[in-house]
């Protein structure tokens, strides 16, 4: 925390203070909050902020991960380290289980990313969570740019972009009816670059796949997908070894990597600072379906 | 450069306002584009959409209209937040729609803004809407205002025309509470005076818009005199390492807190001394707004969420009767005897509307004393009675301890924004 004689806060300190305020506010007012955790850089930053918000006490809510069945092992390893170090309870909602139990239907065409929606909503309902912290940032996507810090969801988990509550000052309205819940976004005002500056400043442990490494990849639709059991080369495709890193982490079938030699926080920041393509445009197959792909998923309950 | 952003840059939040076709989205698009906050894939998507609609130019407004219904109607219907950074500053833009029916969105965007940016079309001059936007920004106590006179390219960069608009607006603004006003002639479409000074307007000797945004001094806008610390959360670890730890977490709303300061806890009125101020695992020598900290006291006094820590000789008013300007945000009108929930700092209570004293016409500043209720997007002076005492300052003195929201208890929706009168 850098304080100055002229009572200025750096923008990272101000963003941190705002996020901590949001965490404390939601923890104080909601009966049963949970932190949604994908293992990516944003949810890890959230873990760090939650750790700071309640220190020296433990984080007063559990962590929920939606396991697509196609998660990167490096991400699951980081998840486990964080959960163990902070002593928080981890709840895993598995897409495979949800398919087996008939909660979501795998028709062979729907992506795991979409199947996460029903799996997540079921977990929220079964556990009775009234608030779910998400790592969404408004700079990620134009539908997210419209979303409130406290984002109301009806009993079906749906977001109604046309009927959002006005959000004034830092006075968040957490009123809910039976069965409804709130999505809470402490990182709303952070940008991708802010996240990286913060991760570097705090020396935060993130999954190793964010750093440049040699990996077997399959070039497909302008993306480099990681070759694995879930992603096999189709006819005419080849498996190649390249020096790559990931800008986002999600399900292995949809998340591409980029060629890069950035193997340190500093090199990643330098790379992001001059990047000319958004993280989602570069590496997320799920946002390419239509101009309103994210908006449509969010209306259904995606985070 | 990246190091500079991390260490030195601070944050400026600004709200934009303007009429429908005055080029607000174009200006935001240009600020984002010129500060490289727009990526190639986003620009390509906008170019493709512009082309498929048969436009002969790239419509930068498409970058900011994020929702399907907005793109369909070609208008902005809700507040959106945009981000860009320069080596000196990070900027958060609350992009608010200009239509009169969206006054509530403008109030929302302005509530957190350090600066308000009002756009006018040089060909039209000041309109009813430009005046309304200035009134709203003044009412919300946004400390800095910029009037950007846009589309100067369409009036041959006419100095006389600009000076006429400048003089007219300055006269109007003198009736309002606007501590700092800058008027800048620009062309958002062509880029004149947006990031770089325009060659077309050698008669203008002020800063470009970006230069003004980057160099404006904002730290002193915050209240550094009156110590106000609304307690948000009590931290009791109950662990072996921190067996006796008891800290009061919150975000400083005003003043400077230091260890050793004698403080009073309201509403109990108990006094104690600050034993230490923690930010995560470090003790800090002082705390000021908007830092989120944990305050420890030397005595084991009873403090809970909703209480406020202040100095013994400088306290907020403790009252169940509020006299406030309220912006009403829902179709069911605000009426006397109506009961609502009220959230003020970290305290939530119930309130009843005693009366509406007047309705303010935000175009003419006329006070309609005959009004007995407030409709959607209307603003008026209202008296409220609260079930329990709130710890308030006037909004003029402190935007955090002087503001509140009103919530409909049946629907749970935020229906009003209030600012306490002095």
From TrEMBL, chain A:
InterPro entries: PAPS_reduct_dom, Rossmann-like_a/b/a_fold, SO4_adenylTrfase_ssu, Sulfate_adenylyltrnsfr_sub2. Residues 33-256 form the Phosphoadenosine phosphosulphate reductase domain. Keywords: ATP-binding, Nucleotide-binding, Nucleotidyltransferase, Transferase. Its EC number is 2.7.7.4. It is an enzyme of class 2 (transferase). GO terms for biological process: sulfate assimilation. GO terms for molecular function: ATP binding; sulfate adenylyltransferase (ATP) activity. It holds the Pfam family PAPS_reduct. It comes from the Bacteria. PANTHER family: SULFATE ADENYLYLTRANSFERASE SUBUNIT 2. Belongs to the PAPS reductase family. CysD subfamily. This is Sulfate adenylyltransferase subunit 2. It comes from Microlunatus elymi. The gene is cysD.
From TrEMBL, chain B:
Coiled coil: none annotated. Gene3D superfamilies: P-loop containing nucleotide triphosphate hydrolases, Translation factors. Its EC number is 2.7.7.4. SUPFAM superfamilies: EF-Tu/eEF-1alpha/eIF2-gamma C-terminal domain, P-loop containing nucleoside triphosphate hydrolases, Translation proteins. It holds the Pfam family GTP_EFTU. Residues 9-222 form the Tr-type G domain. It comes from the Bacteria. GO terms for molecular function: ATP binding; GTP binding; GTPase activity; sulfate adenylyltransferase (ATP) activity. GO terms for biological process: sulfur compound metabolic process. PANTHER family: TRANSLATION FACTOR (PTHR23115). This is sulfate adenylyltransferase. The gene is cysN.
């Amino acid at each position: 925390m850098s304080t100055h004689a002229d009572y200025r806060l750096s923008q990272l300190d101000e963003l941190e203070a705002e996020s901590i305020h949001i965490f404390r506010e939601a923890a104080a007012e909601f009966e049963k909050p949970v932190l949604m955790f994908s293992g990516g850089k944003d949810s890890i930053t959230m873990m760090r902020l939650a750790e700071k918000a309640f220190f020296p006490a433990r984080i007063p809510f559990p962590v929920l991960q939606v396991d697509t069945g196609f998660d990167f092992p490096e991400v699951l390893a980081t998840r486990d380290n964080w959960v163990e170090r902070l002593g928080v309870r981890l709840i895993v909602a598995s897409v495979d289980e949800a398919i087996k139990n008939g909660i979501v239907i795998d028709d062979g065409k729907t992506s795991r990313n979409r199947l996460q929606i029903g799996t997540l909503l079921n977990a929220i309902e079964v556990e009775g969570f009234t608030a779910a912290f998400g790592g969404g940032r408004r700079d990620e996507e134009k539908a997210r740019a419209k979303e409130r810090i406290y984002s109301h969801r009806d009993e079906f988990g749906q977001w109604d972009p046309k009927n959002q509550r006005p959000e004034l000052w830092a006075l968040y309205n957490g009123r809910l009816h039976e069965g409804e819940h709130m999505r809470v976004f402490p990182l709303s005002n952070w940008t991708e670059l802010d996240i990286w500056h913060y991760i570097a400043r705090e020396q935060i442990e993130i999954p190793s796949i964010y750093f440049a490494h040699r990996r077997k990849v399959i070039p497909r639709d302008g993306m480099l997908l990681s070759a694995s059991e879930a992603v096999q080369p189709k006819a005419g495709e080849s498996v190649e070894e390249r020096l790559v890193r990931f800008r986002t982490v999600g399900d292995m079938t949809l998340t591409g990597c980029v060629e890069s030699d950035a193997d340190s926080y500093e090199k990643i920041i330098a790379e992001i600072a001059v990047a000319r393509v958004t993280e989602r445009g570069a590496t997320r197959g799920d946002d390419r379906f239509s101009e309103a792909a994210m908006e449509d998923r969010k209306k259904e309950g995606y985070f | 450069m990246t190091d500079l952003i991390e260490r030195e840059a601070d944050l400026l939040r600004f709200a934009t306002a303007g009429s429908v076709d005055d080029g607000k989205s174009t200006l935001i698009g240009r600020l984002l584009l010129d500060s490289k906050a727009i990526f190639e894939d986003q620009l390509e998507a906008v170019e493709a959409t512009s082309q498929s609609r048969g436009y002969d130019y790239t419509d930068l407004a498409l970058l900011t209209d994020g929702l399907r219904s907005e793109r369909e109607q070609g208008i902005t219907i809700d507040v959106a937040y945009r981000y860009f950074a320069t080596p000196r500053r990070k900027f958060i833009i609350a992009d608010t729609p200009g239509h009169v029916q969206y006054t509530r969105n403008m109030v929302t965007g302005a509530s957190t803004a350090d600066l308000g940016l009002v756009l006018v079309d040089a060909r039209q001059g000041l309109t009813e809407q430009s005046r309304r936007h200035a009134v709203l920004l003044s009412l919300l106590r946004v400390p800095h205002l910029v009037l950007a006179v846009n589309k100067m390219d369409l009036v041959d960069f006419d100095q006389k025309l600009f000076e006429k608009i400048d003089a007219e607006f300055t006269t109007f603004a003198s009736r309002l509470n606007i501590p700092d006003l800058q008027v800048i002639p620009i062309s958002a479409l062509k880029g004149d005076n947006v990031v770089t000074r325009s060659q077309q307007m050698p008669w203008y000797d002020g800063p470009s818009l970006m230069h003004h945004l980057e160099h404006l001094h904002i730290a002193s806008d915050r209240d550094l005199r009156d110590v106000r610390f609304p307690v948000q959360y009590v931290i009791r670890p109950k662990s072996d390492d921190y067996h006796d730890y008891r800290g009061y977490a919150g975000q400083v709303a005003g003043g400077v807190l230091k260890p050793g300061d004698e403080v009073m806890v309201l509403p109990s009125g108990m006094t104690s001394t600050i034993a230490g101020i923690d930010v995560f695992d470090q003790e800090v020598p002082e705390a000021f707004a908007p830092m989120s900290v944990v305050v420890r006291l030397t005595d084991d006094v009873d403090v809970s969420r909703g209480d406020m820590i202040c100095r013994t000789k400088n306290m907020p008013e403790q009252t169940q009767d509020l006299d406030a300007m309220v912006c009403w945000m829902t179709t069911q009108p605000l009426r006397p005897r109506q009961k609502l929930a009220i959230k003020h700092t970290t305290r939530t209570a119930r309130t009843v509307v005693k009366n509406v004293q007047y309705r303010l016409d935000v175009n003419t500043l006329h006070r309609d004393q005959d009004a007995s209720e407030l409709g959607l997007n209307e603003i008026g002076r209202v008296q409220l009675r609260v079930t329990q005492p709130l710890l308030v300052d006037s909004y003029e003195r402190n935007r955090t301890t002087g503001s509140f929201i009103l919530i409909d208890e049946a629907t749970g929706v935020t229906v009003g924004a209030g600012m306490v009168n002095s």
